Each structure stands twice: as C-alpha cells, then as structure tokens.
Task: structure prediction
Amino acid sequence: MFLWFAGGAFVLVWLVFRSPAVDYRLVVVGALLPLAELPFGSPRVLHSLTGAVALLALAMVLTPRRRLVQRRLVAIPIGVFIHLLLDGVWTDTRAFWWPFAGLAWSDAPLPELARGPFDLVLELVGAGALWWCWRRFGFDDPARRRRFLDTGQLDRDVATP
Result:
C-alpha cells in the first residue's frame, strides 16, 4: 500500500514533467499523505478533489512572491492528485466530489482497504517502479543519492533523456 503510491507517484511525475528540479521527496510525501485517513476506514477530505485543490491553493497563497518555495511546495498537492488517480477513488462519487456530492462522508471503505490480495500485486509494481528509479537516476552513486536526499532533486546528467 505504500510502495504502490511512492513508486507510482515518482515515476508518473517524472514521465509527465521530465524535470530534475522537482522535489520528488515531496511528491512522494503528497502521494502518501491520504494514507493518514486509514484510521477512519473510509475516505475523508484527503481522498477528495477538494482536499487536493485546497492543498494546492494553500501552497500558492501562503508563499506570495516566493516562487522557489511555491515550486517546491506544489509537489505535495501533485502527489495527492496522483494518489487519487492511483487509488481509483474517482470511482466513488461521494468521496471524490465531496462536498459537492453531499456533505456526508462516503460509506465505502478506503480503496486501500478494499482491494484484498490485489494490494500485494500493486506493492510489487510499486517496488518495481522504485527499482527502475534507482537504476535510471543512478542512486547507486553515493553523491547522487546524497543530493537527492538533501534536495529531492535529480542530477541533470542522468535526468535528461
């Protein structure tokens, strides 16, 4: 349940933006953030489009005239958006469109809790995605790994196609 979101978010953001300047650590944090709703057992605000848009608005409004900070923080809502995509929560109208589809929370279980043994397959796919990132971006090199851990960014020489 963790590797699927972490690996999927890392790879999808790389494939869409192809940018070494994105803070991929924060993308992964954003992709894992909706898992904080696991104790509730059903989707809440972080599994809604409203929650993801609110996080994006907060990142923009709380950092006026600080473009570098905004660029870094916008990675969190991007990760949340990707979680919604990978989770398939968009198939639950009451959860995804909350509060526009009604103020009550969805009665459906969290998708993370409803897939059963298929979660293992998704975790293996996520592990494979993370392994691909390890190889593709040269994280076996201690200097590249340290840069990534310190900044969340990739080296330009391995990040360009």
Summary: Residues 3-159 form one domain.
